[in-house]
Amino acid sequence: MIMTSTGPAIVVDRLRKRYGAFTAVDDISFTVEQGEVFAFLGPNGAGKSTTAEVIETIRAPTSGTVTVLGMDVGKRKAQVVRRIGVLPQNFSSFDRITVRESLQYYARVFGCDADIDALMDLTNLRDRSAARFNTLSGGLKQRLGIAVALVNDPEILFLDEPTTGLDPQARRQVWDVLKGLKDRGKTVFLTTHYMEEAELLADTVAIISRGRIVAIDSPVRLTEAHADQMRLTLKSIDAAAADLLRNLGFAPVPVGEGGLCVPVETPDDVRRILDEIAASGLALGGVDVRKPNLEEVFLKLTAAKPATDVGDHAR
Ligand SMILES: Nc1ncnc2c1ncn2[C@@H]1O[C@H](COP(=O)(O)OP(=O)(O)O)[C@@H](O)[C@H]1O
Ligand SMILES: [Mg+2]
C-alpha cells in the first residue's frame, strides 16, 4: 500500500464550474482533512455532484484548482483515481450477477487483489454474497456500491447521496457502514440533502446553496452559531398565558390548537415560565422543549431568495 501522505486529503481553491451561461459552482474553497467525514449538504441542484465529480477527476473545472492528497487533479488524474473510491449517485451493477461476482469483476477492472470477503464484511453483505443484483433492496444495492468503491483500498471515499430514497432502517444500516469506515481512518466525502445524516456522521459540514458555500463548520458549531434559540411549546394553555409571558419579557407565538411557542435562551427561562404558570393557576395541557438543530440552520441558510436565479433549485 502507498504510504499515507501527510497534509490535507482535499484542497479546493476558488473552484468554479459553468455549463454555458449557467454557473453551477461559484468560486468555492474548502479543505478536507485526512480521516474526517466531510458532508456536503445542500438541496437538489446546489452543485454537490458537480463539485464531487471535479474532485474525482471526472469533470474539468472552468477555473480554480483542486488537489487530492497533494496531487493536482487536472494534472495527475491517473494517480488520483488509484487512491480514491467513488460511489456515484444512482449506482447500479449488472442485473444478474451476484454480489461476490460484482466485487470480483470490479476488482479485476481496477487491477486490485482485493479481499472480497473482507469487503463484504465491511459492508455487512456476507450473507448476500450469492444474491443477484436485481434481487437486492435499495439499501443492499447501495452497500454493494460502497463495497465496489472500496476494491482499491482507497484513502478517500466519495459517496454521492448514498441514502437518498432509502427507508429509515436501510439508511441506518448504510450509516453503520460509514461509521465503520471512519473508524478505519478513511476520509469520507459525503454529499447529502439529509441534515440528520450530516449531523450524525460528519466532522465538518459545508452547506452549499446555488453553487456557493454558505456555511462551513462542525455540526455543533453550526447549530450554535446559526440556529435560533431554544423553543418552549406550551400545549392547550389558558388564553391568559400570552399576556403573562409578554409581561415576563418573552414573545409567545400561537401554535396549533390553543398552544403557544416561546423562544427562550436558557433552561432557567423554561423553569421561570413554568413556575409563573403554575403560580397563576393556569391550565396547561403539555410541554415540549426543543433545541435548535442543523435542519433550522440549513433552512435558514438555503431559504429561497427572490429572482436572479436560474436552474432548478427545488428540494
Ligand atoms: N452537464 C451539465 N450540463 C448542464 N447543466 C448541468 C450539468 N450538470 C449539472 N448541471 C446543472 O448544474 C446544477 C448543479 O447540479 P449538480 O451538481 O448535479 O447538483 P446537486 O448534485 O447538488 O443536485 C443543476 O442546476 C444542474 O441542472
Ligand atoms: Mg447530485
Helix and strand topology:
Layout: E1 10-19, E2 22-32, E3 37-41, H1 48-55, E4 63-68, E5 71-72, H2 77-82, E6 84-87, H3 99-109, H4 116-122, H5 138-149, E7 156-160, H6 168-183, E8 187-192, H7 195-201, E9 204-209, E10 212-217, H8 219-226, E11 230-235, H9 241-247, E12 253-255, E13 259-264, H10 267-280, E14 286-290, H11 294-302
Parallel strand pairs: 3-8, 3-9, 6-7, 7-8
Antiparallel strand pairs: 1-2, 1-4, 4-5, 9-10, 11-13, 11-14, 12-13
Helix pairs in contact: 5-6, 8-11
The protein binds adenosine-5'-diphosphate and magnesium ion.
Adenosine-5'-diphosphate (ADP) binds at residues 19, 24, 42, 44-50, 311-312.
Give an overview in words.
By secondary structure, the chain is of the alpha/beta class. It has two domains: 10-225, Rossmann fold (3-Layer(aba) Sandwich), CATH 3.40.50.300; 227-292, YebC, transcriptional regulation domain (Alpha-Beta Plaits, 2-Layer Sandwich). It contains eleven helices and 14 strands. The protein has helices spanning 48-55, 77-82, 99-109, 116-122, 138-149, 168-183, 195-201, 219-226, 241-247, 267-280, 294-302, and strands at 10-19, 22-32, 37-41, 63-68, 71-72, 84-87, 156-160, 187-192, 204-209, 212-217, 230-235, 253-255, 259-264, 286-290. Strands 6-7-8-3-9-10 form a six-stranded mixed sheet, with helices on both faces. Strands 2-1-4-5 form a four-stranded antiparallel sheet. The chain has a four-stranded antiparallel sheet with strand order 12-13-11-14. α5 (138-149) runs parallel beside α6 (168-183). The longest helix is centred in the middle third of the chain and has 16 residues, at 168-183. It is elongated. The two termini are 41 Å apart. Residues 306-315 have low confidence and may be disordered. The protein binds adenosine-5'-diphosphate (ADP) and magnesium ion (MG). Adenosine-5'-diphosphate (ADP) binds at residues 19, 24, 42, 44-50, 311-312.
